[in-house]
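Note to self: keep these together.
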Amino acid sequence: MSSSSAAPAAKPPMRDALVAAAFQLFLEGGYEQTTVDDIVALAGVGRRSFFRYFPSKEDVVFPDHERCLADMTAFLAASAEEDEPVRRVCDAARLVLRMYAENPTFSVQRYRLTKQVPGLRAYELSVVWRYERALAGYLRGRFADRAGGTLRADVVAAAVVAAHNNALRSWLRSDGEDDAGAAVDHALGYVQAAFGHEAPGHPGDPDHPRGEGAEDVVVLVARRDAPLWRVVREFETVLGRG
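Structure:
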């Protein structure tokens, strides 16, 4: 007579276990009240294990951004000369959306948490700035031979980030129920209509003035040292989505 038993469920990787423990504690007791010691105790590991994966408690809230930034950088570096640059950076921004959409429950929880903790909101803005710099760096190379190429690159990068984040927050406010891809495609369509080669009259390009029948576009000019949150807010106000 033979008997069999179900194999025990595999434990999640330590990194995932730390993230899960952290968010359980954040939701139960609050972010500020939770310490690294609390997190490692619940996860059943030592402090060294935590800091092997995360430099700080803030980093455990954003465990996937470093990977996503690396993926975006590699995607842009692999661009071909024939790739239309504005479309390329819009596609790069969609990699960020994919990261959020992979785990809607976690993404919504993080969104709610960052709204409650000013320090996390500031940290998130610093992450967004790094995405924007990656986009701008690629565009500066592609626009290097144009008059005002650096300005154009920075403006397009800021517009891509603002449009993407506007749609992303709308999806998060729906608790991940709405169609994130459709929302981001619609928002990035504004950017491609304004700055892409396929736009009527190539708005923003001094060699291609707008012709009759071109779609309305929005160009937002901001100081280089303006906080990103202010640029995003002004962009949303202009679009009537604030």
